[in-house]
Structures are given as structure tokens and as C-alpha cells.
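Researcher: I need the complex structure. Ligand is flavin mononucleotide. Inputs:
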Amino acid sequence: MNLKEAIEYRRSINFFDPDKSISEETAENILTLAALAPSSMNLQPWKVITVLSPEKKELLKSVSFGQPKVTEASCIYIILADKDFIEDNLERIADGQVRLGLLSDETKPGYVNMAVKGHGEKGSAVRTKKALISTSLFAMNVMYAAAALGLESHPMGGFVESDLMREFSINEKYEPVMLIAVGYKNPKAVIRPRSYRIQTIDFNEII
Ligand SMILES: Cc1cc2nc3c(=O)[nH]c(=O)nc-3n(C[C@H](O)[C@H](O)[C@H](O)COP(=O)(O)O)c2cc1C
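Model: Output:
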């Protein structure tokens, strides 16, 4: 499947085959592929909790308005944006660039300085926004990575944020972005036609 075909193929699959599972390795491979997503200054502000166990899926369903796909899908990713991505990631990413020869010991401080200045103060709305923008691109890539490995997906924003944070002991520095269910389509399910899309001419302004 080429990229155009993958974009045309992807749907939110409401009905997963509850009898099918995926291995930890496959769940990790999807994330490794997805992590090739672009991010602001390559700061990769995402964090993922991969839910594979039936018990944790039940717990997740209880904070996701009982959506059946949360327990029926083989794997659910809890996609979080790390609002402390400057503190958590900047140094190691800058060092990685130095090791690759893309930065030198002389140019590294300039890169670090620009990254700190460009992503808002710790705890600020700007910082949160920057974390959410890049993590959303990562989330889209998770869905395409799943498709590339022959799997279906379904993004979900339908969960109670405070309950999710509490039940999964998620640190406050993380902002929940979405859940992504991944697995195999239930062979008995009929997928509805693709939902209406606003015509390009109605949202695009050419200047
Ligand atoms: C951020 C986000 C949150 C969503 N939340 C839910 C959800 O909680 N439950 C659900 O059934 N679908 C959810 N969806 C799926 C959308 O309804 C779906 O993407 C849209 O109707 C278009 O259908 P398609 O993905 O098959 O093209 C969500 C999608 C996104 C991107």
C-alpha cells in the first residue's frame, strides 16, 4: 500500500475482533515507525502508555464512557503530550545531534537556547500548545503506522480526563491527547460509508 492508498484506506474502525491480539513487539514496532513523525525542533514531546492487558483495558473502558472498542481492540495507546519536554528531552536530543555531527559543541548552546526561547515557559499555555501540536502529528502517524503493518485503528477523545489521570497514575506534566485503538476489524461488522467531508473549496482560501 502506497501512502496515497493508506490515506484513502484509513477509517475509524468501530468494531474490532475481540479474539485477535497483537504482540508487545508489534505494538512497539508501530510506535517506532510513528516516532519518525516531525516535531518542533525535533523535540518529540510525546509519551505513550500501551494498554495490552484485559484488566487494564477494562479499567480504561470505565473512564472512556464504556466504549466497547476499548476492550475489543487488541491494543489501546494512551497518547500523552509531555509539557516538560524541554526539561525532559532537550539535552539528550541536542547530544544526539552532536553525535550525528549535525551540531557541534560550539553550535549546541545556540540550538538549546533557541529551543528554550521558542517553546514557552514551563507550565505556560504556549508550552502546552507546542506539546499538543507535535504530539498530534505523532498520533496521526500511529494510525498510519498501524495501517502500514496491516492493522486498523480508531482515535478516541471520549474519556474523562481527570478519571484517566487518576486511574492510570499519570503525572500532571502529561496532557492527555487521545486514545488510539489498534487491532483487526471484526469480520462480522459492516463499516459505515465514510463520513461527509467539507469540500476543499469551502475550507481552502487560495491567495
Ligand atoms: C481527536 C479525535 C477524537 C475522537 N473521538 C472519538 C470517540 O471518542 N469515539 C468515537 O467513536 N470516535 C471518535 N473519533 C473518530 C471520529 O468520529 C472519526 O475520525 C470521524 O468521524 C471520521 O471518520 P473516519 O476516521 O472513519 O474517516 C475521534 C477522532 C479524533 C481525531
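Model: Summary of the prediction. Residues 3-37+49-83+128-203 form a domain with the NADH Oxidase fold (CATH 3.40.109.10).
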